[in-house]
Amino acid sequence: MQELPIRDITVHDDNCVRRVPIFSGLSKQQQDVVATLARPRVLAAGELIHRAGEHTGTMFVVHSGSIKVHRLLPSGRKQLLRVAKPGETFGEYAFLTGTAPPEEAEAHEKARLCVFVHDDLAALIERYPDIAHRMLRTLGQRLAHTEHRLTLNTQSVEVRIADYVLQQPLLRQPKPGPAPMQVRLPLTKKDIASLLGTTPESFSRALGRLRAKGLVDIDDDVVTLLDPDELESLVAGAV
pTM score, two decimals? Predict the structure, then answer.
């Protein structure tokens, strides 16, 4: 088989390929070959990447910034499905199935993408089949997460919020010793409400009820988990 072309590039340890799980099974030298096929794209916040149903023939890797992936509801309203962060991919389902993506993607903030066109990615998969296996694993994990969210969507908004805040990474405390468990909301409350399948008004009311029960406290975008055990029990009792 003919070797894949290697263009003259400056190789950095932080290139987008080295940050992506689907390429982690390759050696550094192989990852550098893959990096030569990545086409950079820089986006401004709010810039549209593709519309729902638009054939792209590409897979996207987030190098920096973040990307919002929406589903368009019959009402015309957008529902946020997920936010792709650095090292994550989107568009692989459309690549694997040959269909147009059913979702819309736009830059949540200024972002840099590495874009792989269909022919280049197909050549990579033919040469390195492990990439396809890892793509399927990634899609499987995403499907499991989606199924979990669908299960919670039949529950109260309080349950959905409790599950969401428990999934966020804890903030590092400036001083050692006992400290409250706190997380930072990574999105606006409007976006989180969309992600959880509810309205901003219902989200705010449910958050207020959790606060009134002494389970959480809110200070701007920082949530203090006053009773994490009870929050976990709330979620566990719903699934």
Answer: 0.80
